[in-house]
Each structure stands twice: as C-alpha cells, then as structure tokens.
Amino acid sequence: MESGTVTETSEIAGTPREADSPGQPEQIEVLNPATGEAIATVPVDPPEAVAAAVARVRANQPEWEALGIEGRYRWLGKLRDWLLDNSERILDTMQAETGKVRADASGEPQYLADLINFYGAKASKFIGEEAVRPHTPLLASKKLRVQYRPHPVVGIISPWNFPLILALGDAIPALQAGAAVVVKPSEFTPLGLAEVVQAWKDEIGGPDVFDCVQGVGETGGALVDAVDFVQFTGSDRTGRKVMARAAETLTPVSLELGGKDAMIVLDDADLDRAANAAAWGGMMNSGQICMSVERIYVEEPAYDNFVAKLTAAVGDLRQGADGRSFGKEVGAMTSPNQIGIVEDHVQDAVASGARALAGGKRLPGPGDYFEPTVLVDVDHSMKVMRDETFGPVVGVMKVRDAEEALRLANESRYGLSGSVFGERERAERVARRVECGAVNVNDVLVNYAALDVPMGGWKQSGIGYRHGEPGIKKYCRTESVVITRFGGKREPTWYPYTKARRGLISRIARAFNARDLRRRVGLR
Ligand code: NAD
Fold first, then answer.
1. Phi, psi of 358 (to 5 degrees)
2. CA of 499 relative to ligand 1 center, distance in Å
3. How far apart, in whole angstroms, are the C-alpha atoms of residue 429 and residue 427?
4. Buried b / exposed e across 127-152, counting CB within 10 Å, b at 16+?
5. Tell me, what's the pLDDT at 522?
6. Cβ-based neighbours of 197, under 8 Å, separated by 6 or more
7. Ligand 1 contact, 173 CB (< 6 A)
8. Cα gap 414→310, rounded to integer Å
9. Model-level pTM?
10. CA of 508 to the centre of ligand 1 (A)
C-alpha cells in the first residue's frame, strides 16, 4: 500500500501509541476524541518505506528547485486555492480526528492560505540572490554573490494539536525555498495531512516532492536519519531525542517545543479586555496550544476584580462537540495521555491548597473532556505553575507589583511567548523584559498571525524560528560565490613566493589595514 493510505474502519483495536515502545504497531487506529469512536485505520510506514519515500522525492528535488521562486509559488498557489475550495471537507476531517470545536478548526485553512501568499510574495527578498560589495579594495577584482540553496529534503515531524498548521505550515516555506518535503504527522491526527498530500498528488497534480509517512517514534527516527534538515514540533522530551539522533548524522534541526506562557495583568489594565483575553488565550483549542496562557500574575489592586471577571467568562463557556454549527467554545482533549496530565496538575494543585473557582474535573464520557478551569491560591511549588499543562486550565496569582510579576513570569524553564495587559506604554516597558521569543501587549496569541515577525522559543522552548525571514532561510544553505572579474596569469599571493613580492603585499595590506598614518607608511 502507498505510504499514507487511509482506510475507514469501525473497529477499536487499541493501537499501542507510546513513542518509546520497542516495536511499532503495523497500523494506527484513529479515534474521534469527541466520541471515543474509531474513525479510520492508517498503515504504519516502517523505516524502509520512509527511506524509499525520501529517496523518491530527493530524486525530483533538483527539478523543483530549478522552477525558481515564481515557478514554485505557482504550484503553491494551486495548493492555496485547493485549501480554500475544500475547507469544509478539511475541517470535517480535522474535527473528527482532534475533537476540536468548529471555530477552533476553522482558522487552519485560512492561516495556510495567508502563509502561502506571504512567502510567495516575500521569498525573493528573504532568499533571493544577494550582491555584496567587497569590504576591502584588496578584493576589488572580485564580484561577490550569496545564493540560498535549499537543504534537498526537509523532514517535518509534527504534533496533534494543530494537525495542518504545524505540518503543512512548516512544509510551505520549505517547498517555497526549493526543498522536497516529507512529513510525519502525529499518530493521533494522521488524516488531515494525508488528505492534503493525496490532493497535492491526485487533484492538484503537483510535482512529486511532497509526501507523508505515518507512524510513531520509529517512523520519526527513520525520517531524521534520511533527511537533510529536521523541523520538529512537539514536546521538549521528544525534541531532545530528535536532536540527539540528528547529531549522529550532523543533520541540522529546528525545534519548536513546549511552553508555559505567562500573562501579566497590571493594575491600570482594562480588566474586561484582560479577562476576556485570558479566557480565550487559556481555553482556545481546549488549552492545547504551545502558546496558551497557562499562568496569570495580577497586580494586587486589580486582582479581585480580574478574578471575578475571568471566572464569569470561563463559567459561560459551552463545551462539547458542535459539528458544523459553531455552537460551542471548548472541545475535547485530543490526546488521551494529555487529559491524564491535566487531571494530575489540577489534583496536585488542589491537594496543596489551590481552589478551583471554575471547572476542576474531567467530564464523564463519551469523549475526552476536561472542564475549563480557573485555579487560585496557586504558587510555584505546584506542577500547574511549573510544568506545561497543555489543557483548559489557568492558574492565577496575586503579586505585589510588576517587578514581582516579572520575576515569577521569568522563573520558568520555558520561554515561548507571553503577554502583558496594562496602560500601553507601561505595559510595553514591562513586556520588553519578559524572557521569551514573542510577547503581546494587550492581546494574546496574536503574534502567531503576524507572519512578518519570527516566532520561536527561548530556553527549553526551542531552537530556531518559524515565520518572518528566518522561517524560510532556515531551510537554505548559503553558497557564497566569489567571481574573478579580471586578473593576469597569476595572483600576487600565488606561487612562486619571492621576498620582493611578499614585501609588496605586506606593505599594501598594512596601508589598508592600519588606522593611523604612521602605521600605514610602515613607521611604528
Ligand atoms: P510529542 O513530542 O509527543 O510528539 C511530537 C511528534 O514526535 C509526533 O509526531 C510523534 O510521533 C513524534 N515522535 C515521538 N517520538 C519520537 C522519536 N523518538 N523520534 C522522532 N519522532 C518522535 O508531542 P505531542 O504530544 O504530539 O505535542 C504536544 C507538544 O508539542 C507540547 O509540548 C506542545 O507545547 C508542543 N508544541 C509546540 C509548538 C511550538 O510551536 N513551539 C506548537 C505546538 C505544540
């Protein structure tokens, strides 16, 4: 069977999903987290199939690169049109495999269309050939150029929380850069990406430079072994393994890892806006966003008012499966492992004295649902304020002032993004001191839509960036081309060495390199 082929099923086989399991299953049963029902079976690609898929797209990559930026954008433009024309179908698949509510799913095709247009328009500026002036007259006979050549095959390993944004979203700049791409989607959400790859092949008729392979850790490891650059998004735990494996072949990696994003609420903030932002930033996608608001620090005078508004906003959220109706705000937890982590964090906090003002528990089935939860009386001894919860839970702490808020916000092994609410200029001053890759002032999560600026993690939240110029340049190697415009039979630095010629070279070089007249003319 061709890699990535999916069959419908009604059977639940209890596929082992532990990434470290010694052997791989032969197939993956995909469950709908909103109902617990099995919706499809996906055959797993063993290492040989991964190597074969990479070899096939590798053979086609030079032709893809030769199309140039505009030629490749024409193909990606067809993909954009397909995504827009088929968005209802894509959203149905995505909802079925993630348990998201419709509104949370619906941003994915729109983001991808915007991303294709962004890199299509900007690629020439970001990775077009650069003409560089020599820094010294000694190189006046040389023409200097820098060209950006893609890593031939990019391997993308992606998580389950945004199955298209975090797989196709990283493939788009790589393809635009001229690389061939093979994606391994999460074993929990393999269907959406497989559908797009199939459409690229069959409906769009795109060049054979884009494929996917399916499986768990063994398939991911085989992909790392076979490609020239690895783009990984997932937990820092797996990120370490991917980096260690890539080190064996000296393959460069970019890692987009977990977060524990802090929100700071200053006492001069618009508390309605701050509370609404915290509710959305904490609960959107059931809190399963690397950049979710997980910790909130509120200056003392604003604390009671903010907590009351946040609790009311979270208490109003409607939870459940909403099909195409846009009738709910909070969906299911996509991975069964994750709901266990969320429950553990909340129970750990409550056992140490925290109170749940909203939510606080897992809902009875069917489906994997955890109530939108607001915890107070929390502190940094609790897992919920230290480790990534990745669920619909926020912990709120009262702080004396902005200095204490900053100290606590920065007291984390993560540094993905953050937000500060308050009077604009004061909030901006505080925001500039938050230790993370991106910070929003009087908004949350919005930096992800600002494709113009890089997004990436500090500390253990990652290495490398997506979006902006670095988001496409990382897929390229620089090739400096130094062209001799004129010259005789030999350069003065070449053989044979003679005292006279070396002396002349030294005097000329000294004249250019010294910064005072005495040294220029050889006097000390
Ligand atoms: P995960 O680390 O468990 O899995 C990620 C991917 O790695 C999956 O495709 C998985 O099959 C694969 N994998 C597992 N073991 C592997 C191995 N040994 N070698 C190669 N590949 C292997 O992460 P997850 O649970 O799917 O996703 C949740 C995590 O992702 C959270 O920590 C979240 O913060 C993070 N995340 C980060 C970003 C970001 O941009 N920084 C975005 C979304 C999610």
1. -140, 145
2. 63
3. 5
4. beeeeeeeeeeeeeeeeeeeebebbb
5. 87
6. 4, 183, 210, 211, 212
7. no
8. 25
9. 0.95
10. 57
Q: For residues 231 and 470, what is the distance between their CA atoms, to the nearest angstrom? A: 13
Pairing of strands 38-43, 7-8: antiparallel
Measured in Å, residue 453 CA sits from the centre of ligand 1 at: 23
CA distances from 368 to 72, 95, 119, 157, 191 (A): 41, 14, 37, 25, 19
Cβ–ligand 1 distance for 97 under 6 Å, the answer no
pLDDT in tens, 411-447: 999 999 999 999 999 999 999 999 999 999 999 999 9
Distance 196 CA to ligand 1 centre (A): 20
Q: How far is CA 171 from CA 243, 259, 334, 422, in A?
A: 19, 22, 23, 37
Nearest CA to ligand 1 atom 20: 220
Task: Identify residue 132 by its one-letter amino acid code.
Answer: V
Look at strands 261-265 and 293-299 and give their pairing. parallel
Active site residue 476: no
Q: How many CB atoms lie within 10 A of CB 70?
A: 10
Distance, in Å, from the CA atom of 105 to the CA atom of 325, rounded to the nearest integer, reads 12
Lookup: tokens for 320: 């459940």
Query: Does the beta carbon of 120 sit less than 6 angstroms from any atom of ligand 1?
Result: no
pLDDT in tens, 15-57: 334 444 456 789 999 999 999 999 999 999 999 999 999 999 9
Please tell me whether the peptide bond between 496 and the residue prior to it is cis, using omega within 30 degrees of 0: yes
- CA–CA separation, 183 and 191 (whole Å): 12
217 lines ligand 1 (CB under 6 A): yes
Residue tagged active-site, from 29, 108, 218, 256 = 256
Give backbone dihedrals phi and psi of 64, rounded to 5 degrees, phi first: -65, -45
What is the whole-number distance in angstroms between the Cα of residue 266 and the centre of ligand 1? Answer: 34
Active site residue 436: no
What would the pLDDT profile of 311-324 be if each residue is shown by its tens digit?
999 999 999 999 99
Radius of gyration of the chain (CA): 27
Ligand 1 binding pocket includes 462 (Cβ within 6 Å): yes
Best mutation site among 20, 42, 161 for ligand 1, i.e. most ligand atoms within 8 A of its Cβ? 161
